[in-house]
Q: What sequence folds into this?
């Protein structure tokens, strides 16, 4: 028995040592300890030995069997560990959640266009001015040379506060002209963006919309300056040099003379028109200057007011104004701007407008 073990042992130990994966190791285990394994065969042989040899041979064989079983077990643990390490090294576990694409917000075209306009006017040296949405009669009408009985009030039918007829939702941003001139001596050069309100509702009119007002007051400010500012603004805003500007005589109580400014050129052609009505403008009426304590014999200037929503529709091809304020996610996903693809209008210049009023 001892002889047999002596030949079997080094062979088995060497094979176990050399096994380099779990399958190979298991084959060795079966060849040694399996049903017909070498050690199992020896165990069976024990039974054929004479009684006096049996006891000693049995002990030797058991020690050998245990040694082989332990060596196999130790080697198995070693191989399992190596396999686990190899697996960890080759596989990367991604513990991050994917970004939810729908949670990225969009910038509303009105906000986008307002920003574009302000950037351009800031580059031209305009300050930013603001006024309240709930305006009083003086700033919205009276000081703008629109007395209570004036028919121009009819054109701007608005919302009145119940129980306080002096509080209205402003019908235009022109009241900011008054607020600015009441608080500041010329020279004045401001733009005033904001929400305005009128009782209208169709494809190009909503009860709430946005305007931007411009006001320039100085000693020699004239119509040519107005035309120059508007032309430059339109070229920058619509990103084309092919801009034709036409002043059509019109009427506003707070400007004299008054004009509707129309734009022609490629922009109008792109929507099948020769001219597009864009905005109202004119030279500030002497009565308005007087109402604000500014001497019209010393100072003069121009004002203009235009719909931001209308400009957004034109620039970004939006057909119906009403959808802008429906808060429909499909609409905002289609027309809104991702923070990453905001169109830039000029190379890297940013808003530098002065203090808010
Ligand atoms: N406030 C006028 C409107 O809302 C526009 C305008 C502004 C006209 C300034 C002339 C000067 O229709």
A:
């Amino acid at each position: 028995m001892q002889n047999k073990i002596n030949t079997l042992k080094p062979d088995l130990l060497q094979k176990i040592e050399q096994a380099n994966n779990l399958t190979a190791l298991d084959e060795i285990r079966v060849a040694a300890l399996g049903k017909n394994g070498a050690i199992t065969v020896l165990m069976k042989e024990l039974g054929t030995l004479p009684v006096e040899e049996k006891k000693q041979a049995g002990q030797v064989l058991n020690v050998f069997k245990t040694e082989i079983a332990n060596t196999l077990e130790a080697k198995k643990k070693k191989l399992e560990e190596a396999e686990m390490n190899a697996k960890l090294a080759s596989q990367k576990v991604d513990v991050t959640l994917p970004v939810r694409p729908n949670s990225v917000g969009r910038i509303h075209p009105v906000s986008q266009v307002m920003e574009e306009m302000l950037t351009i006017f800031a580059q031209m040296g305009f300050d930013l001015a603001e006024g309240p949405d709930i305006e009083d009669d003086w700033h919205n009408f009276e000081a703008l040379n629109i007395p209570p009985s004036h028919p121009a009030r009819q054109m701007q039918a608005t919302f009145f506060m119940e129980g306080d007829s002096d509080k209205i939702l402003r019908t235009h941003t022109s009241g900011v002209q008054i607020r600015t001139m009441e608080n500041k001596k010329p020279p004045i050069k401001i733009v005033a963006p904001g929400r305005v309100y009128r009782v209208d509702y169709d494809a190009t009119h909503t009860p709430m919309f946005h305007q931007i007002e411009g006001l320039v007051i100085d000693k020699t400010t004239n119509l040519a300056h107005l035309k120059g500012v508007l032309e430059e603004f339109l070229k920058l805003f619509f990103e084309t040099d092919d801009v034709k500007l036409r002043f059509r005589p019109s009427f506003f109580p707070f400007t004299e003379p008054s004009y509707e400014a129309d734009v022609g050129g490629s922009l109008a052609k792109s929507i099948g028109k020769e001219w597009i009505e864009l905005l109202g403008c004119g030279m500030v009426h002497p009565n308005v200057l007087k109402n604000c304590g500014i001497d019209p014999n010393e100072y003069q200037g121009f004002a203009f007011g235009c719909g931001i929503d209308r400009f957004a529709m034109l620039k970004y091809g939006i057909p119906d104004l009403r959808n802008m304020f429906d808060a429909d996610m499909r609409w905002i996903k289609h027309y809104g701007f991702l923070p990453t693809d905001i169109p830039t209008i000029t190379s890297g210049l940013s808003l530098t407008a002065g203090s808010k009023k």
User: Anything to note?
Assistant: The first helix runs from residue 2 to 18.
